[in-house]
């Protein structure tokens, strides 16, 4: 079901008005290959790995076979989240690399959290995820999605660990940023709110480093 991952990549490129990543499948690695590279990290269900060898960087994306097999019209929310997170990491890493910009692990996680909310709100393709009307219906949809993504999040890593603190920080910063977006744009009753929202999301996508983290905090309510 790699074409489903390509669909997600294309939706991200359309949302953020960035060059299309034409072949997500070229980056996919099987479980054995990725386990050899990163060990038990594969048990997360999705992993993006960047390996250096002789001065050359190699990028590989792993998405668990059970996730790939479950993608489609009847996919679960958890399946959709894992797929979007993995593809988001890959697309954003390639976007920054094309601009000769570095990206931190925290930035990748933060952008993935925002991407899940943005795609879930603005670009659903399934009957199971219908678009609500703009104004109050879309605000209610956003609040429900924000709760599921951020307030109800469960973490695999303990607090106080490097990974645990990073995932919790990304979740907290993204939740505040998204709540600010709701306040600024989703209360409008016409489509100008959608245009303004997409514009701010695109500017945030192009931010990097300290600007991205500070900007997200500054735009929280």
Report what the structure shows:
The chain is mainly α. The protein has two domains: 1-102, no CATH class; 104-221, no CATH class. Helices cover 61% and strands 7% of the residues. The protein has a two-stranded antiparallel sheet with strand order 1-2. Strand 1 and strand 2 (56-63) form a beta hairpin. Helix 5 packs parallel to helix 7 (162-186), helix 6 runs antiparallel to helix 7 and helix 7 (162-186) packs antiparallel against helix 8 (192-206).
List the helices and strands and how they pair.
Layout: H1 2-16, H2 31-38, E1 46-53, E2 56-63, H3 65-70, H4 77-98, H5 105-122, H6 136-151, H7 162-186, H8 192-206, H9 210-218
Antiparallel strand pairs: 1-2
Q: What's the pLDDT, averaged over the residues? A: 88
Tally of individual domains: 2
The termini sit apart by 39 Å
Order of SSEs: HHEEHHHHHHH
Helix segment tally: 9
Give me the secondary-structure category.
Answer: mainly alpha
What is the radius of gyration computed over CA atoms, rounded to a whole number of angstroms? 17 Å
Reported for the largest beta sheet, the result is: 2 strands, antiparallel
Q: What portion of residues belong to β-strands?
A: 5-15%
Q: Classify the helix fraction into a percent range.
A: 55-70%
**Low-pLDDT sequence parts:** 126-130
Shape: globular
Strand order of the largest sheet: 1-2
Strand tally is 2
């Amino acid at each position: 079901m790699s074409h489903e991952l390509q669909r997600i990549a294309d939706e991200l490129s359309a949302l953020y008005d960035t060059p299309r990543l034409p072949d997500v499948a070229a980056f996919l690695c099987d479980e054995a290959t990725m386990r050899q590279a990163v060990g038990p990290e594969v048990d997360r269900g999705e992993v993006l790995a960047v390996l250096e060898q002789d001065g050359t960087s190699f990028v590989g994306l792993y998405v668990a076979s059970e996730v790939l097999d479950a993608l489609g019209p009847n996919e679960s929310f958890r399946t959709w989240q894992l797929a979007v997170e993995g593809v988001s990491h890959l697309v954003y890493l390639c976007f920054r690399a094309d601009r000769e910009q570095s990206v931190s692990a925290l930035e990748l996680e933060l952008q993935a959290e925002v991407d899940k909310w943005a795609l879930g709100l603005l670009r659903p393709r399934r009957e199971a995820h219908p678009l609500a009307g703009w104004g109050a219906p879309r605000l209610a949809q956003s609040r429900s999605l924000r709760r599921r993504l951020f307030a109800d999040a469960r973490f695999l890593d303990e607090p106080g660990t490097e990974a645990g603190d990073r995932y919790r920080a990304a979740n907290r910063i993204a939740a505040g940023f998204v709540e600010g977006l709701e306040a600024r744009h989703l209360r409008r009753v016409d489509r100008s709110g959608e245009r303004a929202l997409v514009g701010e999301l695109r500017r945030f996508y192009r931010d990097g480093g300290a600007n991205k983290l500070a900007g997200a905090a500054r735009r929280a309510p």
